[in-house]
């Protein structure tokens, strides 16, 4: 029988061998430097949607760098794509057929409802068209007048040359001036953040954008009709990309992804209606 000293010596020797044996290190992940850059510009809401939709594409194509430029609006984006300043113009437009330009090819992806959204603490889920008109034009200034709490209404809107503003003026507001204290915001992301941070606020924008940012519970129905129902009183805008026709082959991987079943599913899951 071995002595305790011999046993301890054996254990110590084995421990030293184990500690000195190098463990296998995982193979380092290969870095793939992007070899292609694709630039996108246009509608703020449209860019927000595409940025989210293209996450799977970017993971599957590490050699392609997607650069989302600062929101420029639809018309400037179309001119920039025509001039070769960037690769894709992104639009949210009520008239996608009218967005055509010489030298550009249009790809219409989905119908995107234009919706109203309120601050999370407001216990309201529906407003009528008449109530929305009265709120935005200053005839209703407190939420208590439409069944809400005794709280001043903070009206958030977009600048007059914005496509959403133009559509709502055509359908709801006409030429009436906004409420005198209305806050005018230049970008879709700014309005979305303002609704999140401002108690008593109401704003409008892209249903797809709001869904992708987890704000579906704050979207209002209008006249009791949900934005995805066919008789919703505000017509949708169309999510459209326009690209130089001569660049079709170079952009093919991205364009193919945008027309794939995977993208159609993402669009549907986030409140939009893909083109047939």
Describe the overall structure:
The protein is an alpha/beta fold and 276 residues long. Helices cover 34% and strands 22% of the residues. It has 2 domains: 36-112 and 237-274, Periplasmic binding protein-like II (D-Maltodextrin-Binding Protein, domain 2), CATH 3.40.190; 114-222, Periplasmic binding protein-like II (D-Maltodextrin-Binding Protein, domain 2). It has 10 helices and 12 strands. The strands form 3 sheets. A 6-stranded mixed beta sheet has the order 2-1-3-11-4-12, sandwiched between helices. The longest helix has 17 residues, at 4-20. The model is unreliable at 1-23 (pLDDT under 50). It comes from Candidatus Viridilinea halotolerans. Residues 36-211 form the PBP domain. This is PBP domain-containing protein. Pfam families: PBP_like_2.
Order of helices and strands: HEHHEHEEEEHEHEHEHEEHHE
Might you state the CATH topology name of the largest domain? D-Maltodextrin-Binding Protein, domain 2
CATH architecture of the largest domain: 3-Layer(aba) Sandwich
Using DSSP, what is the number of strands?
A: 12
Which strands sit side by side, in order, in the main sheet?
2-1-3-11-4-12
Residues in β-strands, percent: 15-25%
Largest sheet composition:
6 strands, mixed
pLDDT averaged residue by residue: 88
Number of contiguous helices: 10
Q: Termini separation (Å)?
A: 84 Å
Low-confidence stretches: 1-23
- The CATH class of the largest domain is identified as Alpha Beta
Pfam families: PBP_like_2 (PF12849)
Protein name: PBP domain-containing protein
Keywords: Signal
Organism: Candidatus Viridilinea halotolerans
């Amino acid at each position: 029988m071995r002595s305790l000293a011999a046993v301890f010596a054996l254990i110590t020797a084995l421990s030293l061998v184990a500690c000195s044996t190098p463990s296998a290190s995982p193979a380092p992940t290969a870095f793939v430097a992007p070899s292609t850059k694709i630039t996108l510009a246009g509608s703020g809401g449209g860019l927000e949607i595409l940025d989210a939709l293209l996450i799977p594409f970017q993971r599957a194509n590490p050699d392609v760098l997607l650069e989302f430029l600062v929101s420029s609006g639809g018309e400037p984006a179309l001119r920039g794509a025509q001039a070769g300043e960037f690769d894709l113009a992104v639009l949210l437009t009520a008239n996608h057929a009218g967005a055509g330009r010489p030298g550009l090819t249009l790809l219409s992806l989905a119908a995107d409802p234009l919706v109203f959204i309120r601050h999370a603490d407001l216990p309201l889920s529906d407003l009528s068209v008449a109530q929305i008109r009265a709120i935005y034009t200053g005839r209703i200034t407190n939420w208590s007048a439409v069944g809400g709490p005794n709280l001043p209404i903070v009206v958030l809107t977009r600048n007059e040359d914005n496509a959403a503003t133009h559509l709502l003026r055509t359908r709801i507001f006409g030429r009436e001036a906004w409420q005198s204290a209305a806050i005018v915001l230049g970008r879709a992301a700014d309005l979305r953040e303002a609704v999140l941070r401002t108690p008593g606020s109401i704003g409008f924008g892209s249903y797809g954008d709001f869904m992708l940012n987890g704000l579906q519970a704050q979207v209002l129905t209008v006249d009791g009709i949900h934005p995805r129902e066919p008789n919703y009183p505000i017509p949708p805008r169309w999510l459209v990309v326009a690209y130089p026709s001569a660049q079709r082959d170079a952009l093919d991987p991205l364009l193919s992804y945008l027309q794939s079943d995977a993208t159609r599913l993402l669009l549907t899951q986030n409140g939009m209606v893909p083109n047939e």
